[in-house]
Amino acid sequence: MISEQDKQAILNGAFGVTREGKKVKFLGKDDSIKDTFWYCIYTADNLVDDFMAYKTLSKRYTNNETRFDIVGLWQEKPEPFALEKALAGEPVLLRDGSKAYIFHCINDEFTKKHNIGYQLLGVIVDSLEGKQLTRSWAKSGIFNEVNPYPDFDIIGMWKEPEPQLSSNSLQLPKPLTEPLNNDDNYFTLASRNGKYVIDDWRWKDKTSDHIFLREARIYKTKDDVIKVIEIITGKPYEDR
């Protein structure tokens, strides 16, 4: 579960991470559509993969858990899991963004004799509820070999997130929500060859126009799309 501290950091411009490990950035809340929080989803190469609407700041849908849910703050290239460091007291990073400590490793001989599958014993620090959850892992860091996306897998060494001081993420321009007149000009954001580009269209009442509209990707002006790019990248747009 995501903590209130992490939620505030995301509102202030920090990158979040989904349950399946994807990097995301909060773009803003669309007041024209009830309970709609917009996120930019990134690929492993740090390119825009998709824009996605959430029902709450952290959940794709209100009543169901999904792989798209925001579970914590994104950490760039975490240090690989090192058992020696973990046993020396350094915290580890779990797939859901939680912090955990490993306090014991059952030796191989005892493990083999008693058919024990998970040798590492430790505790998960739950900052949201203030609880400590005792858990066990395999030496590789795997928490559950059956589930392909177990939240409690150890994926690296923990690093304290850097504080986020300010952001303009709440000033996101609003996409259009109503069909345009025939031949009206509009703009959309795209990513090609690792670069953000602005596409210029004319409304023809075609299926593609309505898909853009339904996905809240249509902006009235080129400057609106430029602002979105600057929010995503955190730097001025150069190709005006």
Automatic annotation (TrEMBL):
Superkingdom to which the source organism belongs: Bacteria
Protein name: Uncharacterized protein
